[in-house]
Structure prediction request, 269 residues.
Amino acid sequence: MVHGLDHVMLAVANLATATSAATTMLGRAPDRTGPLAGMSAASFQLANTTLHLVHGAGPLAPPVPEGTAAITATAGFAVENLDTAMALLARRGAKCDGDAFPWTTADGTATRATRLTDAASNGPTLLLVERPAKKPTIGLGLDHIVIRTPAPDRALALYGARLGLDLRLDRSNPAWGTRFLFFRCGDLVVEVVHPLATPEGPGPDTFSGLAFRAPDIGAEHARLAAAGVPVSELRTGRKPGTHLFTVRSPIALVPTILIGAQPSPARAQ
Prediction:
């Protein structure tokens, strides 16, 4: 049913400031500015998904207090046919919140979207967006989105059984104190984590951060450091053959890392 992640939406207190920060971090200007779902927005088309920054009180994003960088407001899953997807979800016990509503993609294409009910989404705002599947392009993309859950088996039912994402990993790692669920969604991953020290319970899931995928991780680290962006050192990633670094606030609007293939020794220096 779901063939990719259409977008991640961040609600921000100041759209101009947040757009400037995202432009610096991503190394490019927004592809589109203008209203989106009743809010002011700036949209960045990445290699495999879209990052929307929105401001204003709307049904899909809460107002953000001044002094707060951003709040991850929604994740939108791409489907070929919205009516078919809504009907299938209903048969699987996950209802959508009313009728479809107009949606605009980063390139200005008009389409439709719908929202899962809070009960169906386990708390976060999750959308279905109607658009055809498309191949990723070259450049900076999203590697994974992190969702924290108090109920990992409930997450298995939602992302695996109901949305039909491909479960690639279900593993508890005591050394990291975490149970990890990795769901393949197009060419990126929805990573659901549960802290082992926290008893399982009925509370809501929450968005926890973004990991961007860089074609040249060493070049991205050097570019951001040269621009005065506060970044951590390059370090070895948990996935073999990868390196990553953390982008710190205020440029990072939400907890953010960049990850990529291990750079050459010359680049790493």
Remarks:
- The mean pLDDT is 93.
- Residues 2-130 form a domain with the 2,3-Dihydroxybiphenyl 1,2-Dioxygenase; domain 1 fold (CATH 3.10.180.10).
- The chain is about 20% helix and 40% strand.
- The longest strand covers residues 2-11.
